[in-house]
């Protein structure tokens, strides 16, 4: 499964920044050994249900250690028997774009 999630503490620094708290969550993801990627809005992790959810829980707990309230946004793509989908989905998209461009270009 793929899980894209975003964790945000209820309080940030003087400018409203949450980078230090989010960094703790991302460190847990990176230390998990699971395939992952982080962008400006979400961190995506790939693995089996229990291992991915364990990482999400530990990341939330890390942020909660410094904040009385934590927000979690989570989106999951549950597709049993598939691995490598974090990159494979993007590769399929890129191939579709190339195929479309080939049909549109005279």
Description:
With 106 residues, the protein is an alpha+beta fold. The protein has one domain: Alpha-Beta Plaits (2-Layer Sandwich), CATH 3.30.70. Helix content is 46%, strand content 22%. It has three helices and four strands, in the order E-H-E-E-H-E-H. The protein has helices at residues 19-31, 49-64, 85-104; strands spanning 2-9, 36-38, 43-46, 70-77. A four-stranded antiparallel β-sheet has the order 2-3-1-4, with helices on one face. Strand 2 and strand 3 (43-46) form a beta hairpin. The model has no long low-confidence stretch (mean pLDDT 91).
Give the SSE map.
Blueprint: E1 2-9, H1 19-31, E2 36-38, E3 43-46, H2 49-64, E4 70-77, H3 85-104
Antiparallel strand pairs: 1-3, 1-4, 2-3
Helix pairs in contact: 1-2
Beginning-to-end CA distance, first to last residue: 40 Å
Shape descriptor = globular
Beta strands, count: 4
Beta-strand portion reads: 15-25%
Structural class: alpha+beta
List segments where confidence is low: pLDDT < 50 over at least 5 consecutive residues: none
Which range best describes the helical content: under 10%, 10-25%, 25-40%, 40-55%, 55-70% or over 70%? 40-55%
The main sheet orders its strands as 2-3-1-4
- What top-tier CATH class fits best? Alpha Beta
Q: What is the radius of gyration?
A: 17 Å
* CATH-defined architecture: 2-Layer Sandwich
What can be said about the biggest beta sheet?
4 strands, antiparallel
């Amino acid at each position: 499964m793929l899980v894209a999630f975003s964790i945000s503490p209820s309080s940030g620094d003087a400018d409203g920044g949450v980078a230090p708290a989010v960094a703790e969550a991302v460190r847990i993801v990176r230390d998990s050994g699971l395939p992952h990627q982080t962008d400006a809005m979400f961190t995506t992790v790939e693995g089996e249900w229990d291992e991915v959810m364990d990482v999400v829980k530990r990341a939330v707990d890390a942020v909660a250690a410094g904040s009385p309230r934590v927000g979690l946004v989570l989106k999951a793509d549950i597709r049993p028997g598939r691995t490598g989908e974090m990159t494979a989905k993007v590769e399929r998209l890129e191939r579709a774009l190339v195929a479309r461009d080939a049909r549109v270009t005279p």
